[in-house]
Amino acid sequence: GQNIDQPTEMTATEGAIVQINCTYQTSGFNGLFWYQQHAGEAPTFLSYNVLDGLEEKGRFSSFLSRSKGYSYLLLKELQMKDSASYLCAVIDSNYQLIWGAGTKLIIKP
Amino acid sequence: DVKVTQSSRYLVKRTGEKVFLECVQDMDHENMFWYRQDPGLGLRLIYFSYDVKMKEKGDIPEGYSVSREKKERFSLILESASTNQTSMYLCASLKAGGEVETQYFGPGTRLLVL
C-alpha cells in the first residue's frame, strides 16, 4: 500500500529552527509537496520538490532524497504565526496526490 | 490569483437529508477535486474530474456522488447524509500541465450531520 509518515505533533520556540520530516512509500514518484494549514482553514502551497536536494524559499526550505523516500521541511526564525499543521503530499505514478496526516506545529514564546 | 470558493463554510444537516456542496473556481482549470479531512487521517480523495461531465472515483467514493456540468463548477452530493460523513470537505482546483502542478484549495465546508 501507499503510505506517508509524518510526526503527529511538534513543539518549538519562537525564533528557533524546526525540521519536520516526511517519509513515503508510494507506487512511483512524480514530486512532493509541502502545504501549510492553519486551524479551520484550507491548505496553502509552500513548496514542491521533484529533484534531490534543497529548495530554499525565504525562511522555509524543503529537502528531498528520492533514494531514501524522505523529505523534510525546515522552518527558520520561527514566528508565532507559523503555528499550523504542515502537510506532506506525494504525486504517485498515476499522478494522484497521496497525503500525509499532517504535523501540528506548536510555537511557544 | 486563483480563487476557489465553496458555497458554505459551516453546514448542519440531519441524517437522511440530501446535501449539496458546491465549488466554483475562476481560473479555467481543467481538474477539480473533492476531499474530506478528518483528524489523524489526512486528506482523502472522494472524487475528481478532469473535464466537464467527466468524473473519477477517488479513494472513498461510497456514499457520495458528483456533478460537473460546467468547467468552473464541481458539486459534491451526499444522497442520504449519515453521521459518519461529519467532516471537513475541501474542494481543490488544478491546472493541467505546467512546470509545477499545485492544487488550489477552497476555504472548506465543515459539515455536521446530526
Summary?
Chain A is mostly beta strands and 109 residues long. Chain A has strands spanning 3-5, 9-13, 18-25, 32-37, 44-49, 53-57, 60-65, 70-75, 84-91, 97-99, 103-108.
Descriptive tags:
heterodimer, A: 109 residues, mainly beta, five-stranded antiparallel sheet, 11 strands, globular, B: 114 residues, four-stranded antiparallel sheet
What does this structure look like?
The complex is a heterodimer of chains A (109) and B (114). Chain A is mainly beta and 109 residues long. Chain A is 0% helix and 57% strand. Chain A has no helices and 11 strands. In chain A, strands 2, 4, 5, 9, 10 and 11 form a 6-stranded mixed sheet that branches. Chain A is globular, with a radius of gyration of 13 Å. The mean pLDDT of chain A is 93. Chain B is an all-beta fold and 114 residues long. The mean pLDDT of chain B is 91. Helix content of chain B is 0%, strand content 52%. Chain B has strands at residues 4-6, 10-13, 19-25, 31-38, 42-49, 56-57, 65-70, 73-78, 87-94, 104-105, 109-113. In chain B, the strands form 2 sheets. In chain B, strands 2, 4, 5, 6, 9, 10 and 11 form a 7-stranded mixed sheet that branches. A 4-stranded antiparallel sheet of chain B has the order 1-3-8-7, with no helix packed on it. Chains A and B meet through strand 5 and strand 9 of A and strand 5 and strand 10 of B.
